[in-house]
């Protein structure tokens, strides 16, 4: 749908894409749909907005296990995971880049946090919303609640 390769969709590209895929609707309906996808109101749909809008909602059981993992990592209980929180729960000693001296403990912690952090604001702090958003993306690719919960419990030793 991104005809100009801008990594965003303007309304014109969105309309053309809908037509290309056989989704026929009035311009007013398409505009209302476009506005649902355009979460930040910029007049453009970026890739993250597109994916987030298409994600199916998570069950309460999935949300609960994600919150359990977040609480385990948030040692200070302040609602944000930081490097200080990780020091008590994540051992870097077995990380290959730590073992070969390429990265420091601090760099490994930061890289770990960056994987959960918002792509537009890598500040070294992961909020509950960012953590849930990350796992919402993972959740979308796993059909079974039982498998998702097992994966989370095993990964985080819950």
TrEMBL record:
Pfam families reported in the protein's UniProt record: EF-hand_7
Signal peptide range in chain numbering: none
Gene3D superfamilies for this protein: EF-hand
Protein name: EF-hand domain-containing protein
Domain EF-hand, first and last residues per copy: 25-60, 61-96, 104-141
Keyword Transferase among UniProt keywords: no
Keywords: Calcium, Metal-binding, Repeat
GO molecular function: calcium ion binding
């Amino acid at each position: 749908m991104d005809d100009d390769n801008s990594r965003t969709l303007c309304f014109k590209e969105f309309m053309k894409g809908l037509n290309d895929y056989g989704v026929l609707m009035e311009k007013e309906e398409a505009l209302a749909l476009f506005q649902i996808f355009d979460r930040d109101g910029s007049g453009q749909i970026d890739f993250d907005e597109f994916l987030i809008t298409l994600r199916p909602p998570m069950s309460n059981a999935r949300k609960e296990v994600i919150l359990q993992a977040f609480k385990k990592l948030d040692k200070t209980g302040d609602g944000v995971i930081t490097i200080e929180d990780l020091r008590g729960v994540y051992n870097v000693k077995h990380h290959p880049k730590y073992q070969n001296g390429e990265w420091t403990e601090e760099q490994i912690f930061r890289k770990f946090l960056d994987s959960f952090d918002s792509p537009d604001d890598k500040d070294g702090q992961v909020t509950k919303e960012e953590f849930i958003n990350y796992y919402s993306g993972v959740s979308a690719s796993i059909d079974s609640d039982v498998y998702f919960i097992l994966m989370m419990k095993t990964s985080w030793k819950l």
